[in-house]
C-alpha cells in the first residue's frame, strides 16, 4: 500500500528483550508474600518496510552500560559491578502500637507498586516481604526496535517467589483496593507537584554545564551530587519542540526509526528535529563565514543536537515530581538517545537518587498544626484525618517530604458519607455545582471536588456529574498520547485498504485530522528473495505448484509481510489467480486499449497497472518495449555525472569561466554555483563540484536562539519550618508551557 510505505532505506532492526529484574527487599507489609509487578503487553515484532528482506529476529543490543547491567544480573564478573553507595538514612519499619496505626513502607516509595490495605484488614498484621523488580534497556535510539510501540513501559513480567514455587498458585492472596491505589497516586503526584512549586533556587547551569553533566553520568558521587542539586532547584526551561518533548517523555526507542522521506506522512517530531538541525547548520555556517560544510561537520552538529535535546530534557525534568525509579530510567534512556556511553548501571543510579532524596527529608512534627503553613496549604487532604480508610494514603503522601516511623495519634481523628450516585441527591451546599454542562467550567472542577470532599467520600466524580457536549480533539502528536481505548491499538499493521480505512475511521470518531502520520503505522516487510529464508511453522517446497498448498501458505505467512502481486516466481510457479494469462501477441489483448511500442518509463508503469487488472503476468514482453537507454555521463537533470565530465563539457562548449572545478575556496562558492545554475539550468548543484574542508568542531552556541530561556543562577536561603518562601520573579515571556 503506497500510503504506508517509506522510501527511507531501513536496515534490519530487532526487538530487544529486557533483562530479568532483580529483587529489591524493602519493608514488611502484610501476612503473606506479595509480588507487585504487571506484565508487559505483547508487542508484535516487525520492521518497517524498506529494502530489508530478512525476517524479524530477536537479538540483544549491547552497550557498555547494558553490558554492566547484564554482568551484574547474571553474576558474571562481579568485580566490575560498581559498589552501591552507602545510604544516608537507615530504613525503618513502622510498628503498629495503636488501633489506628498501619504499617507504612520506609523512604519515598514508588506509589504505584505499594500494596493496598483493605477496609477489613487486621491492623496488627505481620509484615511480609515487598518485592519490587526493575529492568532497563540501554541502547542508542537509532539502533533500537523499529516498532513505534517500542516506548519503554512501566510494566514488567511477574516472577514467582520461592514461597510461591513451593506452595503453588493456590496460596491465599490479599485483594488490593483499586480505589485506594488511585487515591495514593493522585495525592502523591499532587503533593510532589505542589512541593516543586515551593522551590525557589534555580538550577546552576554555570557549574553544571553540559560537559560536566555528561561526565557525572560516569561517576556515582558526582551523579548523586547532581541529582541532589536537581531535587533542590527548579527545573530548567530550555526550549524543546512539543512533539520531540513527548517522544522523550515516553522514552520512545523508535524516535529515529519512524523518520520517512515521504513529505505527506512525516511525523511531527521528524519535522521539528530537521528544523532544529537546519537552524544549527545555518548558524555554524554564519560563524565560520562558510557557504558549504562537509559531512563530517554535519555529523558533528547532528551529534551535538542529540546531546543538547537529551540533556535539556533531563534538566527540564522536575525531580521532585517523579520517584527515583523513574529518575534512573530517564537517565539511562537519555544516555542512549545522546549516544553517551556511561559505565553506571541501573542499581547504582537509583541508589544515588535514593540517597539524594533521603537527605532532603525532614522529621514529621508530633502535631499536625505544627506543620509549616505553606506545607499545610498544599496537602491534598485535611489534618487531622477524618477518614480512617485513607490512613495509608496519607502516610505515603507525607513520606514524600517527611521522615517518621509511624503516623502519630494526633493525625487521625471520620464522619463523612459516600458520594451519591446522582448530583440531585447532594446536600444544598453543593447541589448547585453539578452537573457540569459547560466545558469552560471544567477548570473549576478541582475547586468543586475540594468542596465535595468536605462532606463526602469519593475517589473520582461519577459520569452523571457531567453533561458536556461531545467534541473532537486534535490527533496527538505521538500515538502514546492516545486515550487508553486507542493506545493499545496504535501503531498498527494495515492488513489491506479496508482495514486501514477502518482504523482511520475509529480514530476519526474521537480525533480530528486530515492525514495519518507515519508513526501511527507499522509498515510491512518485503518478502525475502529466497523463500527458504522465511521462518514458518510449516515447511513448504518452493516454488509452490498447486492451489491447495498456496491457500495453506497464505494462512501461515506472518501478516507483517507484504505480498506483492504477483508473487515472485521463486515462491509460486503457476497462475494462482482467476485471471487469464497475458497473451504474447498484443493483437489478442482485447480488454484494454494498448498503445505499442512503449517508449517511456511512465508509459510502462501505466500499461502494467492497466494490464494487471485483467491479466496474469510477471513481466511485459520485451518486444513491446522500446525505451531508449540513458545517455551515459548525464544525470536525470542534465548535469554532468562526474567532475571530469563537467570540466570537459565546459571546455568543449568554450564557456567563459575563471574556475577549475572542483572549487575549494568558500568565497568562490556563490558565484560558481550561480554560473553552473545558469549554464545547465538546474536548481541543485552536486556536492562533488566543491571540495569542502572541515571546520573546527561546533560549540553549544550554535543552538542559542530566541526560543530558549536562559537559566538564572541564584542562591536563596533554604526553607525553614514555618517560613513562607518568596518566589523569585522571572521573565516568562519566552517560556513555552505545555
Describe the structure.
This protein is mainly alpha-helical and 738 residues long. The protein has a domain at 525-624. The chain has 19 helices and eleven strands. It has a three-stranded mixed β-sheet, with no helix packed on it. A two-stranded parallel ribbon has the order 4-5. Helix 16 (547-556) links the parallel strand 10 and strand 11 (561-562). Helix 8 (295-316) runs antiparallel to helix 9 (324-337) and helix 9 packs across helix 10. It is extended and about 95 Å long. It starts with 23 loop residues before the first strand and ends in a 58-residue tail after the last helix.
- Could you spell the SSE succession in H and E letters? EEHEHHHHHHHHHEHHEEHEEHHEEHEHHH
Largest sheet: 3 strands, mixed
Give the strand order of the largest sheet, numbering strands 1, 2, ... along the chain.
Answer: 1-3-2
How many beta strands in the DSSP annotation?
Answer: 11
Mean pLDDT: 74
- Helical fraction: 25-40%
Radius of gyration: 32 Å
Outline the fold blueprint:
Elements: E1 24-25, E2 34-35, H1 64-74, E3 130-132, H2 162-167, H3 178-198, H4 210-216, H5 220-232, H6 242-249, H7 268-287, H8 295-316, H9 324-337, H10 346-360, E4 362-363, H11 373-378, H12 391-398, E5 402-403, E6 417-418, H13 445-452, E7 456-457, E8 473-474, H14 484-487, H15 497-508, E9 511-512, E10 525-526, H16 547-556, E11 561-562, H17 601-612, H18 643-652, H19 669-680
Parallel strand pairs: 2-3, 4-5, 6-7, 8-9, 10-11
Antiparallel strand pairs: 1-3
Helix pairs in contact: 3-12, 5-10, 6-7, 7-8, 8-9, 9-10
Amino acid at each position: 500500500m503506497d500510503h504506508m510505505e517509506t522510501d527511507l532505506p531501513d536496515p534490519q532492526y530487532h526487538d530487544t528483550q529486557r533483562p530479568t529484574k532483580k529483587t529489591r527487599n524493602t519493608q514488611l507489609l502484610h501476612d503473606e508474600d506479595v509480588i507487585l509487578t504487571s506484565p508487559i503487553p505483547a508487542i508484535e515484532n516487525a520492521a518497517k518496510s524498506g529494502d530489508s528482506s530478512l525476517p524479524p529476529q530477536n537479538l540483544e543490543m549491547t552497550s557498555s552500560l547494558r553490558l554492566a547491567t547484564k554482568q551484574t544480573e547474571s553474576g558474571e564478573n562481579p568485580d566490575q559491578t560498581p559498589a552501591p553507595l552507602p545510604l544516608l538514612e537507615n530504613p525503618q519499619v513502622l510498628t503498629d502500637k495503636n488501633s489506628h496505626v498501619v504499617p507504612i513502607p520506609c523512604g519515598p516509595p514508588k506509589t504505584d507498586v505499594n500494596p493496598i490495605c483493605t477496609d477489613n484488614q487486621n491492623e496488627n498484621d505481620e509484615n511480609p516481604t515487598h518485592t519490587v523488580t526493575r529492568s532497563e534497556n540501554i541502547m542508542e535510539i537509532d539502533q533500537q526496535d523499529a516498532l513505534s510501540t517500542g516506548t519503554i513501559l512501566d510494566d514488567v513480567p511477574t516472577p514467582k517467589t520461592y514461597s510461591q514455587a513451593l506452595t503453588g498458585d493456590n496460596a491465599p492472596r490479599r485483594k488490593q483496593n483499586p480505589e485506594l491505589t488511585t487515591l495514593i497516586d493522585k495525592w502523591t503526584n499532587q503533593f510532589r507537584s505542589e512541593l516543586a512549586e515551593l522551590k525557589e533556587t534555580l538550577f546552576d547551569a554555570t557549574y553544571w554545564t553540559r560537559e560536566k553533566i555528561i561526565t557525572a553520568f560516569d561517576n556515582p558521587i558526582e551523579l548523586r551530587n547532581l541529582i541532589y542539586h536537581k531535587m533542590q532547584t527548579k527545573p530548567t526551561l530550555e526550549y524543546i519542540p512539543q512533539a520531540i518533548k513527548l517522544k522523550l517523555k515516553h522514552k520512545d526507542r523508535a524516535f529515529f526509526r519512524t523518520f520517512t522521506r515521504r513529505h505527506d506522512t512525516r511525523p511531527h517530531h521528524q519535522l521539528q528535529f530537521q528544523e532544529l538541525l537546519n537552524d544549527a547548520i545555518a548558524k555554524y555556517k554564519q560563524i565560520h563565514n562558510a557557504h558549504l560544510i562537509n559531512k563530517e561537520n554535519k555529523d558533528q552538529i547532528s551529534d551535538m543536537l542529540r546531546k543538547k535535546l537529551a540533556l535539556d530534557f533531563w534538566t527540564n525534568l522536575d525531580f521532585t515530581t517523579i520517584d527515583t525509579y523513574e529518575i534512573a530510567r530517564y537517565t539511562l534512556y537519555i544516555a542512549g538517545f545522546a549516544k553517551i556511553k556511561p559505565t553506571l548501571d541501573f542499581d547504582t543510579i537509583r541508589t544515588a537518587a535514593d540517597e539524594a532524596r533521603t537527605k532532603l527529608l525532614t522529621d514529621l512534627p508530633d502535631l499536625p498544626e505544627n506543620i509549616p503553613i505553606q506545607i499545610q496549604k498544599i496537602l491534598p487532604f485535611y489534618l487531622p484525618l477524618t477518614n480512617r480508610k485513607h490512613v495509608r494514603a496519607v502516610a505515603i503522601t507525607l513520606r514524600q517530604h517527611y521522615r517518621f516511623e509511624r503516623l502519630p495519634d494526633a493525625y487521625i481523628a471520620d464522619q463523612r458519607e459516600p458520594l451519591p450516585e446522582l448530583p440531585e441527591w447532594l446536600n444544598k451546599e453543593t447541589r448547585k455545582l453539578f452537573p457540569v454542562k459547560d466545558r469552560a467550567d471544567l477548570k473549576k472542577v478541582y475547586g468543586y471536588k475540594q468542596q465535595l470532599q468536605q462532606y463526602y467520600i469519593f475517589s473520582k466524580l461519577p459520569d452523571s456529574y457531567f453533561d458536556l457536549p461531545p467534541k473532537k480533539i486534535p490527533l496527538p502528536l505521538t500515538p502514546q498520547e492516545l486515550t487508553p481505548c486507542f493506545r493499545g491499538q496504535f501503531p498498527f499493521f494495515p492488513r489491506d485498504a479496508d482495514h486501514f480505512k477502518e482504523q482511520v475511521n475509529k480514530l476519526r470518531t474521537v480525533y480530528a485530522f486530515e492525514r495519518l502520520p507515519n508513526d501511527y503505522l507499522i509498515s510491512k516487510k518485503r518478502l525475502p528473495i529466497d523463500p527458504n529464508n522465511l521462518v514458518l511453522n510449516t515447511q513448504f517446497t518452493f516454488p509452490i505448484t498447486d492451489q491447495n498448498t498456496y491457500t495453506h501458505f497464505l494462512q501461515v505467512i506472518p501478516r507483517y509481510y507484504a505480498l506483492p502481486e504477483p508473487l515472485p516466481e521463486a515462491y509460486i510457479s503457476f497462475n494462482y489467480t482467476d485471471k487469464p494469462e497475458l497473451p504474447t501477441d498484443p493483437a489478442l489483448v482485447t480488454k484494454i486499449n494498448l498503445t505499442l511500442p512503449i517508449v517511456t518509463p511512465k508509459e510502462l508503469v501505466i500499461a502494467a497497472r492497466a494490464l494487471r487488472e485483467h491479466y496474469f503476468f510477471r513481466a511485459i514482453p520485451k518486444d513491446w518495449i522500446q525505451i531508449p537507454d540513458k545517455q551515459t555521463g548525464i544525470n536525470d537533470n542534465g548535469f554532468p555525472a562526474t567532475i571530469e565530465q563537467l570540466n570537459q563539457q565546459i571546455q568543449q562548449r568554450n564557456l567563459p569561466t575563471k574556475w577549475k572545478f572542483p572549487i575549494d575556496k568558500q568565497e568562490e562558492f556563490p558565484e560558481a554555483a550561480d554560473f553552473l545554475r545558469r549554464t545547465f539550468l538546474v536548481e541543485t548543484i552536486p556536492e562533488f563540484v566543491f571540495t569542502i574542508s572541515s571546520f573546527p568542531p561546533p560549540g553549544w552556541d550554535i543552538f542559542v536562539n530566541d526560543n530558549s530561556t536562559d537559566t538564572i543562577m541564584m542562591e536563596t536561603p533554604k526553607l525553614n519550618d514555618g517560613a513562607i518562601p518568596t518566589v523569585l520573579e522571572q521573565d516568562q515571556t519566552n517560556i513555552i508551557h505545555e
